[in-house]
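Below is a filled-in request sheet from our internal design queue. Each sheet records the structural input a requester submitted and the sequence that came back. We keep these sheets so that new team members can see what a complete request looks like end to end.

REQUESTER: design group, bay 2
PRIORITY: normal
MODE: inverse folding
CHAIN LENGTH: 372
BACKBONE (tokenized):
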């Protein structure tokens, strides 16, 4: 989720990130308004972008609020037309039978929030602002920021009704597809429809000289590609076994090792985390950082004094999703892999994230080869 996005903060524990397409919108509005030779026009353009941004945030919080029953999302990436929800594998509540109904409810929440905000804003402005008009054109305009509050939410709500993934209408379509096929293929089918809409928006926008339509088409295209990457990533989490990615050539420590000896061993390996073995039994885990901190604070000692005795183990046939949940649930950075109570490998958070990225890309390349 960190590709092409910047962090904004957290709301209700959910990480909010802004996709760089918002910068394209900012540059577009700034350039359009600056051409009017009005020194205040560019600032009003910033105000318009701020209104669109706030409308998108409220829209996405509607999704997150309804989806909280199945586990709060890990994060949301905001685009000018909506957002991409990043699920939290560690806290997800699986419900394969009713997943499509849950997805439809969550998708419908966004447009409903947008229309609700538009309605409330319209009522308040009509009641408090003298001679306020909602129907004066253009509806979405930096010179009429109060009116734009209403119409920005109306447009975002209407746009998200389109069956163009990743719009909310496209999410409903994906949920219906998922009743007959797996989520990845359902997502890919919905994405193809979304690409058709994005191309149509761009072509019609160019023909009519309406650059707003071109921008909307571009945003749909960018969002669809983000969602495809997310779907492939989730597929890797569920389908890849730990034995496919575990490290089998790794160093171990003994609880009787001194911290200086442990640090010396750590210097000659790329590992950041080490299993601690006594005889044939695993008794703890320790990180390179923990060894360094103990040496700095207390001088040389023994590994058994600083090792973490609370750890999780996993079987080699478990999925990446299972390992990821175990790592996240206890805020761990290493999981030993056992087979018949014998240590056969380790999975660290560092190698897990690296492996998932590579596997996602390799599967995407294989699918592209099959499709061609």
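RETURNED SEQUENCE:
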């Amino acid at each position: 989720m960190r590709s092409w996005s910047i962090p904004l903060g957290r709301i209700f524990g959910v990480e909010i990130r802004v996709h760089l397409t918002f910068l394209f919108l900012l540059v577009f509005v700034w350039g359009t308004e600056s051409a009017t030779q009005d020194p205040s026009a560019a600032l009003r353009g910033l105000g318009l972008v701020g209104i669109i941004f706030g409308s998108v945030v409220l829209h996405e919080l509607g999704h997150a609020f309804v989806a909280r029953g199945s586990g709060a999302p890990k994060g949301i990436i905001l685009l000018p037309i909506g957002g991409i929800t990043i699920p939290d594998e560690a806290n997800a509540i699986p419900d394969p039978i009713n997943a499509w109904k849950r997805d439809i409810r969550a998708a419908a929440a966004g447009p409903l929030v947008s229309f609700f905000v538009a309605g409330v804003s319209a009522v308040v402005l009509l009641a408090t602002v003298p001679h306020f008009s909602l129907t004066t054109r253009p509806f979405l305009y930096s010179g009429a920021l109060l009116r734009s509050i209403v119409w920005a939410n109306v447009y975002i709500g209407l746009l998200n009704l389109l069956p163009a993934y990743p719009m909310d209408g496209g999410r409903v379509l994906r949920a219906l597809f998922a009743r007959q096929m797996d989520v990845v293929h359902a997502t890919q089918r919905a994405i193809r429809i979304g690409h058709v809409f994005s191309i149509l928006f761009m072509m019609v926008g160019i023909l009519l000289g309406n650059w707003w339509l071109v921008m909307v088409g571009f945003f749909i295209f960018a969002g669809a590609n983000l969602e495809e990457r997310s779907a492939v990533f989730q597929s890797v989490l569920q389908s890849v076994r730990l034995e496919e990615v575990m490290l089998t050539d790794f160093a171990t420590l003994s609880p009787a090792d001194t911290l200086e000896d442990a640090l010396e061993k750590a210097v000659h390996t790329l590992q950041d985390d080490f299993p601690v073995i006594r005889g044939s039994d695993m008794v703890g885990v320790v990180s390179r950082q923990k060894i360094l901190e103990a040496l700095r604070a207390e001088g040389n000692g023994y590994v058994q004094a600083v090792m973490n005795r609370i750890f999780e183990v996993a079987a080699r046939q478990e999925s990446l999703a299972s390992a990821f949940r175990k790592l996240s649930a206890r805020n761990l950075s290493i999981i030993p892999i056992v087979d018949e109570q014998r240590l056969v490998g380790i999975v660290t958070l560092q190698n897990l994230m690296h492996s998932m990225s590579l596997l996602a890309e390799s599967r995407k390349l294989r699918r592209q080869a099959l499709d061609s």
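SHEET NOTES:
- Residues 247 and 346 are 5 Å apart (CA to CA).
- The chain has two domains: 5-239, 243-358.
FILED BY: M.R.
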